[in-house]
Amino acid sequence: MKSLLLFLLLLSSFALYSQKIATSFDDAIKNRGITLEKLDDRYKSALGDDSTKAAFWGQEKEFIAGYTSLLNDLGRYLKKNNFSWGKTTRCFNRIYINSDGRIDYFLFNFAPGTIETLKETQFKKLVNEFIKTYNFPLKNKIAFAQCSPVKYSD
Question: Cα 38 from chain centroid?
């Protein structure tokens, strides 16, 4: 019985980390039990000063172009689905991408007071739909993550 319980526990934790999720940092940590430490252990930093720690060491320009493409593709997707920011909106993203180029986690945090709850809910819903099929334009042998401040606008 104990081994069955342990197996189910391991299976459920694996399922948690194999889902494609777009959500706020706060929701990921408080409501979903996702820790940034565990994610950061599994996903190497995309860029960095240390060749042993940067997934795209020597390919920085290509990666930046790919990351910019991702954000532009997301913007087009939001517009196509009638999402409007209404005003420039500051956000911080941390995006975790597996070695196949699929987004596993898209975590975001809007600057306090910059977005209405309904608009954040719409954004979250659309980003969850977007990441179901989106492929990052560059592949890597390892899973990687990139974070950045972003100014979203129409």
Answer: 14
